[in-house]
Write a structure and sequence with these properties.
Shape of chain B: globular
Shape of chain A: globular
Distance between the termini of chain A: 43 Å
CATH class of chain B: Mainly Beta
Largest sheet of chain B: 5 strands, mixed
Number of helices of chain B: 1
Oligomer: heterodimer
Radius of gyration of chain A: 16 Å
Number of domains of chain A: 1
Largest interface: A-B, 57 and 57 residues
């Protein structure tokens, strides 16, 4: 399978843009494997479907690149850097650093996009993961099954940040899955009526992420 | 080589056997060697005595895990290739059958990614060993040799072992024992990136890097202590750099634009301080759907490897277009 077997300028019917040039590109061609493009399509459809009607339609998605000639998943055509999601009346901008934006509603929207990405891609590296991802969200499909894995810093910081933004847990976002993080995660699962076996059952984790995203997009805590 | 001599690597594009993606190319005493990775992720090499007839070989992994090969250089009578080995812990889970395609039933955790080196005398039979870089996750991407010193470059990786995060240089004289090079502390961070190429011109070593911001060129007087050339960050913003070669006093680069994926070529005649675009007469990669993965200079000619669709391609005998 060629890393660049597909070239496309929409995902799920939504146009792609590239904002990292002096003159933003309103038509951007991404390249990836066919299987990876299918996952992006599903992610795009989730973004449209999960958003409340007040957001309006999904207008475009800005990327910092899908296929590039560099080691790891970008070089395999199995990674995507997300800069911005633009609905008609709302936006989520990892490029601007929305994960630490002063308005909670904006941070919740970021959590929602993060959660929806995790329903399709095992590795989602967000603004809490490390300094390299303060201005974009990295999505790739390495790592295997779509379950919560406490061995991943990327999974744990997401749960810690979600708990802080959605239930005011007051956790240190350090990527260490200790008792406080475990308790906060359990609280979120209970309030979303999800059984606790999200590390072993992909259906449960994906259900958790979907319900979390629905609440976060509506700026409602748990 | 006299101007009338035929190029060592065929002037027209040659399709290499199989469908693996070539990553790097070099010339040694047994001929031209290309290394790459198959669709299944297995490291392979191609060898040719004349640049026309090619045979394919497998590079063995040192242990269970996923081995990758990225770079190759001639060293003494043989060749040395570099890459990495990923060791993972896995656990079985209940998959979500609602996921399109075949849902994964295993979750993996990266335990360790170690640099690997392989060596061979004949370009076909490879011996492998791991290299301890002193960090949980590290990879080697390119290697070169000036006749006595080997310099291998790559990156350390982030906590989950997903992406490169800082530059890594290892040096050796025998290919077996390696030590860390020294990097300027203010410049070794490479977010989502790595050092990607290395070459030596007379007494100066040059390396390329690519990260989220774009490409950059690094230099070293001894191959051990490195610093980035600040002007190159401006020059190559928004590009990845994936091949570097030396032709006389000229340093040549292959780059890819992050905005439109087009391949571009650059040359410097002043020690990599300034660059200008060049237009080499390349046939195979001058069309959509192609990817250049490495550029080098063999017997005075530019040689590039990459893919056209899923087909591995090598093209040589290329004048760099700046004569």
């Amino acid at each position: 399978m060629a890393a660049t077997e597909r070239a496309y300028r929409t995902i799920g019917g939504v146009p792609l843009r590239y904002l990292r040039t002096e003159r933003p590109l309103t038509q951007y061609y991404a390249r990836s494997t066919a299987e990876f493009e299918d996952k992006l399509d599903a992610f795009s459809q989730d973004l449209a479907e999960a958003a409340p009607r007040s957001y309006g339609p999904l207008l475009y998605i800005a990327t910092a690149g899908a296929y590039v000639n560099k080691p790891k998943y970008h070089g395999l055509g199995r990674a995507f850097d997300l800069d911005l999601v633009r609905w008609e009346h709302k936006r989520c901008s990892p490029l601007r650093g929305d994960h630490e934006y002063r308005w909670r509603a904006t941070r919740r929207r970021y959590i929602a996009v993060d959660a929806l990405a995790r329903r399709r891609f095992k590795y989602v590296l967000d603004g809490w993961y490390n300094g390299a991802h303060r201005d974009h969200m990295h999505l790739d499909d390495g790592g295997g099954a779509l379950v919560f894995n406490a061995g991943y810093r990327s999974d744990t910081v997401f749960v810690q940040a979600s708990a802080n933004v959605m239930i005011n847990a007051g956790l240190v976002v350090d990527g260490l899955y200790g008792p406080k993080t475990r308790r906060a995660f359990a609280t979120m699962k209970d309030r979303l009526e999800i059984a606790h076996r999200v590390s072993r059952d992909a259906r449960l984790y994906r259900a958790f992420l979907w319900r979390l995203a629905l609440r976060a997009l509506r700026n409602k805590g748990l | 080589m006299a101007a009338a001599d035929p190029p060592l690597v065929a002037r027209s594009a040659v399709r290499l056997p199989g469908t693996a993606q070539p990553h790097a190319v070099c010339r040694g005493r047994a001929g031209v060697v290309v290394v790459g990775v198959t669709d299944a992720g297995d490291p392979v090499s191609w060898r040719s005595p004349d640049g026309r007839r090619w045979d394919q070989h497998h590079l063995p992994p040192p242990a269970a895990g996923n081995a990758e090969v990225w770079g190759v250089a001639a060293h003494g009578d043989g060749y040395l290739a570099v890459g990495s080995l990923l060791q993972q812990q896995s656990a079985r889970v209940v998959p979500d059958r609602a996921v399109p395609g075949t849902p994964d039933e295993i979750t993996f955790t990266a335990v360790r990614r170690e640099p690997l080196v392989w060596w061979t005398r004949n370009g076909a039979d490879w011996t492998v060993q791991t290299v301890d870089a002193g960090v949980p996750h590290a990879q080697l991407i390119a290697v070169t040799c000036n006749g006595t010193r080997l310099v291998a470059v790559g990156s350390t990786l982030d906590d989950d072992g997903v992406q490169g995060d800082a530059a890594l240089v290892l040096t050796s004289t025998d290919g077996r024992r390696w030590r860390r090079g020294t990097l300027s502390a203010v410049s070794n961070a490479l977010p989502e990136g790595s050092l990607t190429g290395v070459a030596v011109a007379d007494d100066t070593w040059f390396a390329t890097s690519s990260d989220m911001r774009g490409g950059a060129v690094w230099s070293s007087a001894d191959g051990v202590t490195w610093s980035v050339l600040p002007s190159s960050r401006r020059q190559f913003a928004g590009m990845t750099l994936q091949g570097i070669g030396v032709r006389g006093t000229r340093v040549l680069l292959a780059a890819t634009s992050l905005a439109d994926h087009s391949t571009r070529y650059y040359a410097s005649t002043d020690g990599c301080r300034t660059w200008r675009a060049m237009r080499p007469r390349i046939q195979a990669f001058d069309r959509p759907g192609t990817t250049v993965t490495d550029l080098t200079v063999i017997a005075g000619d530019v040689v590039v490897v990459g893919t056209r669709g899923a087909a591995p391609i090598i093209e040589g005998g290329i004048a760099d277009g700046s004569d």
